[in-house]
Amino acid sequence: MKKLALPLLFATLALLLSSCIVVVSPPVSNFRFDSNWQRTSDSAYVFCSNRTTFMRYKFRAPDLSLIESIQERYVGFASGNTQTRNRPIAELTRDGNDLVFVGEVLFGSGGVPQSLPPGVSQQSIVVTPITPPPSITGRTTVTVTVRTTSGSQYSGTYTYDVYANCP
Description:
By secondary structure, the protein is mostly beta strands. It has a single domain, classed as Immunoglobulins (Immunoglobulin-like), CATH 2.60.40.10. It contains one helix and eleven strands. The longest helix has 17 residues. The radius of gyration is 23 Å and the shape is elongated.
């Protein structure tokens, strides 16, 4: 009886364990934000509303096929206005282990980064150091939320000061 029960126990245990397999996508991590303007006093990246400004964000992701959607949320500090944009996954490029997006920042009515302008590559941002102008004209918080095919969400946030009189 014991000889028969032991193999049956192992077979039952193997069947139970095989039904416990869960597929988990690796996490999205290490969100980083910058722009082509950087304040010299503290190296913070800023937006300049009077000059062409590009925003770049990147994050570590194991595989583009595991990303279901990307949503960007822009909140204006002074106005309190919030705008949300769903970023097409096709606008991301791979840079080593990172996925990267670069877009021109548009100010005014409906002004949020829209898309990559023609002729600008994902790696073409040249950061220009600036001495802080006497006053900040605004502040924008950018939050990027990535949803994976497993339903997990990962977010990164950066707050950009906005200057109207960049050189």
